[in-house]
């Protein structure tokens, strides 16, 4: 029993020591985080005071038109924009958060603040690998490039308007109209010959029985496909007349 008690007591002491050590580590970690947070707050307060002074000197210097800040964390940039607004200055950030070196912040005096077109030009050119010297050059050229882009856009609008006007003024050729069927045609062949000049294809609905032979139908089809001479047109008119007279005689015989 003495040995068992000794083992159990030893195990209890070990568990207690581990719990105490873990609790101590947690307290130390919390203390470290608190010190870090306090240091960051103090650094931000100090940086804000320095930036306030820098902005004030920039406002008083008539020769300077812009002030470039290196890439900063997001909460620093928010403070910078607040300070710029309090000094009646314009401020913008350029670049992408996820790309190095990050987002630059630029403060402008309002009389030389970039237009929306210039801001668009600057934003499109600032990216990964852009240095402060590159940014200076981009800012210098932004106005001229924005004006060039605007002029190009106006040229495209004028060209598009001209094309629309030209398309509107161009007369369109009317579609060929189909000839209306006439009551005095006795069969489909005579009516098809009348429609020879039309570009449309018609399916004829007639109550008259087509009494032509296969040879006559083939002849009519050939006539439709090729141009006719004046003599052929006269022959066809005579044939149509003969067919009408023949049909009338048959109809009369049937009535008797």
UniProtKB/TrEMBL annotation:
TM region positions: none
Biased composition (Low complexity): 170-181
Compositional bias of kind Polar residues: 7-23
The protein's name in its UniProt record: R3H domain containing protein
Bias-annotated ranges (Basic and acidic residues): 24-38, 143-162, 212-231, 238-256
Gene3D superfamilies the UniProt entry points to: R3H-like domain (3.30.1370.50)
Chain segments carrying region Disordered: 1-38, 143-184, 206-256
InterPro entries the UniProt entry points to: R3H_dom (IPR001374), R3H_dom_sf (IPR036867), SPAG7 (IPR017330)
A GO molecular function held by the record: nucleic acid binding
Pfam families per UniProt: R3H
The organism's taxonomic lineage, starting at the top: Eukaryota, Amoebozoa, Discosea, Longamoebia, Centramoebida
Organism field: Acanthamoeba castellanii (strain ATCC 30010 / Neff)
Top-level division of the source organism's lineage: Eukaryota
CDD domains: R3H
Domain R3H span(s) in chain numbering: 45-111
Entry-linked PROSITE patterns: R3H
């Amino acid at each position: 029993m003495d040995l068992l008690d000794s083992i159990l007591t030893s195990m209890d002491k070990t568990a207690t020591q581990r719990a105490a050590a873990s609790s101590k580590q947690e307290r130390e970690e919390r203390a470290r985080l608190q010190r870090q947070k306090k240091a960051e707050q103090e650094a931000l307060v100090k940086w804000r005071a320095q930036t306030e002074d820098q902005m004030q000197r920039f406002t008083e210097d008539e020769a300077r038109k812009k002030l470039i800040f290196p890439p900063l964390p997001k909460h620093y940039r928010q403070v910078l924009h607040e300070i710029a607004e309090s000094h009646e200055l314009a401020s913008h950030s350029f670049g992408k958060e996820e790309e190095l070196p990050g987002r630059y912040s630029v403060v402008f005096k309002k009389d030389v603040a970039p237009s929306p077109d210039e801001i668009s030009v600057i934003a499109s050119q600032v990216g990964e690998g852009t240095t402060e010297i590159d940014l200076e050059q981009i800012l210098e050229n932004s106005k001229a490039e924005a004006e060039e882009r605007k002029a190009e856009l106006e040229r495209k609008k004028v060209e598009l308007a001209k094309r629309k006007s030209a398309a509107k003024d161009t007369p369109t050729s009317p579609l060929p109209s189909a000839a209306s069927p006439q009551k005095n045609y006795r069969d489909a062949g005579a009516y098809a010959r009348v429609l020879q000049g039309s570009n449309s294809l018609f399916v004829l609905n007639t109550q008259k029985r087509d009494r032509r032979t296969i040879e006559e139908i083939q002849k009519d089809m050939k006539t439709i496909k090729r141009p006719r001479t004046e003599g052929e047109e006269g022959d066809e008119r005579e044939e149509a007349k003969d067919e009408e007279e023949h049909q009338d005689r048959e109809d009369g015989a049937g009535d008797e």
